[in-house]
Amino acid sequence: MFEFKFADIGEGIHQGKVLDCFFKIGDMVEEGESLFLVETDKVNAEIPSPAKGIITAINFEINDIINVGDVVVVIDDGSSAEVIETITEEKEKAEAETEEGKGASVVGEVTVSNELIPGFHTEEKEEKVIRRKSLATPIARRMAKDLEVDINEVEGSGLNGRVMKEDIQKFHNLNNKAETTKSVVLENGDDIREEMSLVRKAIFKTVSISKKEIPHTTLFDDIDLEQLVKLRGELSEEIGVKLTYMPFIMKAVYLGIKKYPVFNSTIDGEEIVYKKQVNLGVAVDTDYGLVVPVLKDLSSLSIIEISEKLKGLSSRARDKKLSMEDITGGTFTVSNFGKFAKAGTPIIKHPEVAVLGIGRVKKQAVIIDSEIQIRSILPVSLSVDHRIIDGADGGRFIEEVRSYLENPKLLLLS
Known about the structure:
Layout: E1 2-5, E2 15-21, E3 28-29, E4 34-39, E5 44-48, E6 53-58, E7 65-67, E8 71-76, H1 81-97, H2 123-134, H3 138-147, H4 165-174, H5 198-213, E9 216-224, H6 226-239, H7 246-259, E10 265-268, E11 271-274, E12 280-282, E13 284-286, E14 289-291, E15 294-295, H8 303-318, H9 324-327, E16 332-336, E17 354-358, E18 362-368, E19 371-385, H10 391-405, H11 409-413
Parallel strand pairs: 12-16, 16-17
Antiparallel strand pairs: 1-8, 2-4, 2-7, 3-6, 4-5, 6-8, 9-19, 10-11, 12-15, 13-14, 17-19, 18-19
Helix pairs in contact: 3-4, 7-8, 7-10
Domain Peripheral subunit-binding (PSBD): 135-172
Organism: Psychrilyobacter piezotolerans
Cofactor: (R)-lipoate
């Protein structure tokens, strides 16, 4: 018997929420085949089986919270013929009782596997595997039926193209003019208590640590983007793709950090640790909370390459498809709240030492050479850890970033 324990699938993950399962008691599973889908405070991940055998026990239900170290499933590796015979009988009974796919999920240690799921040796099992791979999870099928969605028209995002319930919901939303939104009705003025999601709990913890341990000081300034507006338009027309300001800002921040490396450091006791590689996190607002995917090593990336990578990270973030590689290793964060506000005071993401806030670009009247001109102005706010970065250092960093954004052709040469 193999006792399968839920393991930390990333940096400091302690628990997860089971969203879906692909097997039930009595099913045969191959090593590397996905057992279940788990949501953590960082990513959603399909958990593969570490062993081949028959599932003899499942220790939780869908939507249960599981903790690292919990024995969540037991797999019979075939060492006991008596047990296998018993499980075969239980399997036949379970199949009849769980036609609707209700039941528990399976979790365990995570290994990355891109291999196709091997087939089983009997015709019955082979047919089951093909059906599982080519169609969808039981929950997805039920949801498709309830929403009257043709599952054959839905592109699957799971392992080997498996259709997940998120795929059904996304397809349904896109094909309906108005998305339904959940609302809460307060009856008789009663208060409502709602448990925080895992993502919100993670934000709660991170922000609390940052404000408690890091003495913030924030500098505000405006940057003239008039030349960048023109260059962005020219490049967008040239390549046939609409560019945002973010790739230019990220490149300017990278160059600013290269000149002032203290902004790419962390504190270890009474020592400053300067990070060799510049990995810029970019805050992304999603339906399930704020996440910060990381753009790794900008040293060799062009503006267009940065744009493509940012689009990929943002898309995966909103679709809950970020990998651990996507969200770890950040050394400095850029938070763009321009869609929602003119300016703000960003909170440093511990253990980083600085964060740059990007506000809303607006046309403003400014005085240039004693004349009033209308220019495109970008408000920025830089929060720094005052233990190792002084206000003057922050001012010099902003000036370096400004020098590139106000002369954007320099970004194309860097």
